[in-house]
Every structure is written in C-alpha cells, then in structure tokens.
C-alpha cells in the first residue's frame, strides 16, 4: 500500500496515531447538479446559501484532520472548470497547483424539491485517485437537514473505519 495513503488513513481515522503533519487539502465549494434540467442551470440564491452552509460544515468537520489551503488564488480556474464534479480530475490539478496534497470536492444531486443526494470525495492531488468518498440522501430541504447530512457523511463515510473504497 502507498505509504502516503497509510499516513492519511491513520491521520483521518486515528488522530494522533500518525505523527506526520496533517496533509494539506484544497476544500472546494460544494456544487449543485440538477439532472432534471438539460444542460444544467445556475443555483438559485437560496441554493447558493445552502451550498455555502454545507461547504462550511465540511471544512469544520475536516478541521484538525487536514490542513486547509486557500483556494482563492485559483478562483478564475475553478470558475472556468466548473462544475468540478464533471471536469475529469481537474480539481486534483488545481489542488496540486495550490500546494495541496488532497482535493476535497462535493456536489448535491437534486432528485426533487425534497430529495437530494450529497456526494463528497477526497482525491490525491498528485494522481487524481479518489482515496475516500461518501454519499447520503437528504430527505428535506432545510438548513438543518443539509448540515446534518454533511456531518453524517464526513463522520460515517469519509472518516469511518473500515475505509470506504479502500483498495
């Protein structure tokens, strides 16, 4: 197994078990995918606010586990490549350019006005390989349910043992 992945796994699952400094992570904003609209659409103001809320929850939930790097220096490239969940690994390339070891991305699939799927992935910035990923269904369109869903997916999928998608 790749020693970097082993250190990441130990640092994520057993805080204090790995004595190496936390890996640097570019945590990108959570995006919206509305598959019911051909060609996609921009998020409404209420959706933008809620996407910001879950992005903040993601950053809080990962704090202490990874060292976040500022993504603002690459804002123009992020906007150009968006949506990152469809850009075939461009998030890893952007993260690497920011000096990050990891790229953390996510999106919400809108199934209906009350059912959403929250997807989050942590990828190796050098290779683009997904190291961990998780998904959870949100069954109500409120701030509390979206925030709870993000905390749940981080705790029970991204930071859980056994590690999801472990090879």
The ordered H/E elements are: HEEHEHHEEEH
User: What number is the mean pLDDT?
Assistant: 84
What would the principal axes of the Cα set say about the shape?
globular
The count of strands amounts to: 6
Backbone structural class: alpha/beta
User: Count of helices?
Assistant: 5
Helical proportion, percent range: 25-40%
Give the radius of gyration. Answer: 15 Å
The proportion of strand residues reads 15-25%
Terminal-residue CA separation: 9 Å
Largest sheet: 6 strands, mixed
Low-confidence segments: 13-18, 162-167
Task: Write a structural description.
The chain has helices at 3-13, 45-62, 75-81, 90-97, 143-158, and strands at residues 24-27, 31-33, 67-69, 102-110, 116-124, 130-138. Helix 2 (45-62) runs parallel beside helix 5 (143-158). It contains 5 helices and 6 strands. The N and C termini lie close together (9 Å). Strands 1, 2, 3, 4, 5 and 6 form a 6-stranded mixed sheet that branches. Mean pLDDT is 84; it is low at 13-18 and 162-167. The longest helix has 18 residues, at 45-62. 36% of the residues lie in helices and 22% in strands. It is an alpha/beta fold and 167 residues long. The protein is globular. A hairpin with a 5-residue loop joins strand 5 (116-124) and strand 6.
